[in-house]
UniProtKB/TrEMBL annotation:
Pfam families the record matches: RibD_C
Protein name in UniProt: Dihydrofolate reductase family protein
UniProt source species: Leucobacter allii
Gene3D superfamilies in alphabetical order: Dihydrofolate Reductase, subunit A
Species classification: Bacteria, Bacillati, Actinomycetota, Actinomycetes, Micrococcales
Source domain of life: Bacteria
Domain Bacterial bifunctional deaminase-reductase C-terminal positions: 5-181
Length: 187
C-alpha cells in the first residue's frame, strides 16, 4: 500500500508560480536538485496535469545540444521508471509519449484512493491545481514544501483556498542557498 504526497517549491508568501504563471524563480540549486533525485527513489507513481506532464517530458531523453550531468541522468532514469497518471481534458492518448502514462479526463478521488492503495511506493501528486481536490479531501498524507527565500506578491497558491490541514513537522532542512525543506505529515 502506498501513500499520497504533495511536493511543491513555493515562495515565502506561499505561491508556486508568480502572477504570470512563471516558476523560473524557483530553479533548484545543485544541492536541492540532488535532494530531489534521492527522494524520487521512494516514488512509484506520479499524478500530474497536462502542463506538468508536458514540462516533465524534458526528462524522457537528453535534449540535443545539452549534456546532462550525473544528477540529471539519475533523475531522468528515476523519472522514466515511474507510472504516470495524467489528468487532462485536452490531451489525447496519442499525445502521450510514454507507454507508462495513462490519461484520465478527470482526477476522481475514489480512483486516486484505489491507485494509492495499490501502489508499491509513494504516489506523488504534482501541481497545486491537480492536487487541490485531494488536499481539500484530506487524502494527502505528506507535504514537502521547498520554501525559496523570495516573495512574489501574488500568483498561484501552493495550497488551495479552503483547505483545513492539521499537520505535524517530521523533517526540516536548510540548504546553502537559503531554501528550506518543510516536510509535514497529516495527523
Amino acid at each position: 500500500m502506498g501513500t499520497l504526497s504533495f511536493t511543491a517549491t513555493i515562495s515565502l508568501d506561499g505561491f508556486a508560480t508568480d502572477a504570470d504563471g512563471d516558476f523560473r524563480w524557483s530553479s533548484p540549486s545543485a544541492e536541492v536538485f540532488d535532494f530531489h533525485v534521492e527522494r524520487m527513489a521512494a516514488v512509484s507513481t506520479e499524478v500530474l496535469g497536462r502542463r506538468a506532464y508536458e514540462l516533465m517530458r524534458y526528462w524522457e531523453a537528453e535534449p540535443p545540444g545539452e549534456e546532462w550531468g550525473p544528477a540529471e541522468r539519475e533523475f531522468a532514469r528515476r523519472w522514466c521508471a515511474l507510472e504516470l497518471v495524467v489528468a487532462s481534458t485536452t490531451l489525447t492518448p496519442a499525445e502521450l509519449s510514454s507507454e507508462r502514462a495513462r490519461l484520465v479526463p478527470r482526477l476522481d478521488l475514489a480512483e486516486l484512493e484505489r491507485l494509492v492503495a495499490e501502489a508499491p511506493g509513494e504516489v506523488e501528486i504534482f501541481g497545486p491545481t491537480t492536487a487541490a481536490e485531494a488536499i481539500r479531501a484530506g487524502l494527502v498524507r505528506d507535504f514537502r514544501l521547498f520554501v525559496v527565500p523570495q516573495t512574489l506578491g501574488g500568483g498561484l497558491p501552493a495550497l488551495p483556498p479552503g483547505a483545513v490541514l492539521d499537520l505535524a513537522l517530521v523533517e526540516q532542512r536548510v540548504f546553502a542557498n537559503g531554501t528550506v525543506l518543510l516536510h509535514y505529515a497529516a495527523r
